[in-house]
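Structure tokens please, single chain.
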Amino acid sequence: MSGITKIAVLGAGNIGGTLAQRLAEADLAQELALIDIIEGLPQGKALDIQQSAPIVGFSTRVTGSTSFDALAGAEVIVETAGLARKPGMSRSDLLTKNADIIRAHALAIKEKAPNAVVIVVTNPVDVMSFWFRKVSGLPSARVFGESGSLDTARFRWFVAEALRVAPRDVIGFVLGTHGDTMVPILSLTSVNGVPLTRLLPPEKLQAIVTRTKNGGGEIVNLLKAGSAYYAPSASQAELVRAVAHDEHRLIPVTTALNGEYGQRDVYLGVPARIGRAGVETVYEVELTAPERTAFEASAKAVRDDLETLAKLSGA
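Here you go.
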């Protein structure tokens, strides 16, 4: 058992529920609170997870609640609540609806757990992470989002599949937004030290980049209803573990930039060292000219969304 006393997960849907299971089984905290507005949903999932403890062998106590009071004492909080974009819903609709959810949760966390490290998952995650920090007033180091961590996992798997190598041997980063303008960094990707650009021809590399950008959409199209939650929850669990165990892991996350990569007052996916204090250090890596251009386009996409949100919300 780690030194973490309590973790809270906001949202008990597919992602939140699966994440709660992963975190409980990893025994990262003495207590895990699953919180949702739907009466019975967080309580039922918490009880179901808890009853697996004698089989799996974890000691974490799992509880479910519809009250923000359950946030009290949480040292790490994962924000998974929010709406997925539905047919007929504009991007502006999604921005405002999820911003309203984030606002309520940010204010509750500010009141109930002001010292927590908060990991934002709600989409569009780069925008919602910025919005959460703005509303909560928490230090930017303690508010970051899952972005490049999930996209990098998908990218690494597609590379491993193409080369028929072990996925863990593929090292690389996906930077920028968690969306159409994400930037897989081919120049810094390798397979146990062998540069990827020496292993695959340009057309296959581009096919992997395209598939990575469409990674979430590919799963949505296959499922017909719903979206991915196994890989996202695994990515989130990795981030929680890095904080809970103070691992000082180098992981791409969406975080506040203060001049790094020539950007300020925006959240974007970049390599960062993650530990008990949250984002400890943001690392600047050398990008090729096309990668730099793509990263700047990514930053513009986030700024455009932030401008739209500001107009719609009156912020």
